[in-house]
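Allow me, if you will, to draw on your knowledge of protein folds for a short while. Thank you for your consideration; the sequence and its tokens are set out here:
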Amino acid sequence: MNNNEAQGFEVPESMGNIINLITKNIKVILIGIILLIVLLGSFFQIQPEEVGVITRFGKYTKTVDPGLNFKIPFVETVYKVPVERQQKLEFGFRTTDTNSLNTNYSKDNAQEESQMLTGDLNLADVEWVVQYRIDDAYNFLFKVKNPETTLRYMSEAAMRIVVGDRTVNEVLTVGRTEVANKVHQIVQDLSNEYSLGVKIDQVVLQDVNPPDAVKAAFNAVNQAQQERATLINEAESEYNKVIPKAKGQALETIQKAEGYAAERINNAQGEVSRFNDLYTEYIKAPEVTRTRIYLETMNKVLPQLGNKIITDETGSNVLPLLQMQMQKQDTPNTPKEI
């Protein structure tokens, strides 16, 4: 009786052969298992968006690119770093559900990091997102302990500094873009200074609101500011209608006056030139010039006198003509000169 029969059960002959075979080759099997483990631990896969950082006994050795790579098992360790993946840090809220069509957010345990004091000693509830990528895997792993936590602290400190230098109206309205750009610059400079190994893609202000206790008052102020802006725009529109028209009329009047002045000056200069020419001719022949001037003057004056009677000194020879002329005055369309 063998051992299996002594224990109260019988082992089939085929099974017993397998057990005996395993027992005889146990060393070979163990060596094979160890070789398989070593083989599986020697090769590793790096995804397209990652790089592999290899350390040997804790000391940095090299960085490998995506694909199938080899390492010394039990001696070298691989850290896979997603350098091509955009990552984000959320402040003032947390994303709770991204599987559904509508993303859900929660402010639980995140209000302390979003409430901050502005430069004019008002409170603002600022929610923002820092989007970044790892651009230096070695620095990200070994230069700073807990780099993501460090980046979170730096981003929060930078936002508080920038918001603290501005009024609450600037943070809530027109200064949002400037605040985001300034925080982006500060965080990137600090990351470079501390060799954090990250590149800040952008800082996005998600929502900026006054605290709930004063939100109604802030809304009223914003509405008043909008109404003020509307009135200013209307006044500027009316200004743009009236002022250019008045300027055009003033310019037209000035141009007319300048034209009239030029005309008068030219006429005066012409009269002066005519008088000088006439005076020159008068000096040459005073009698002739005097007679010509007299005749020209009479030629201008006589047509404007109306009825004219020309007689000699006695007037004895023109009475019939005078009587005829007087009779013709009652007849329309008759000449009035004799």
Summary: The chain is about 55% helix and 20% strand. The longest strand covers residues 123-134. Residues 1-9, 319-323, 333-338 have pLDDT under 50 and may be disordered.
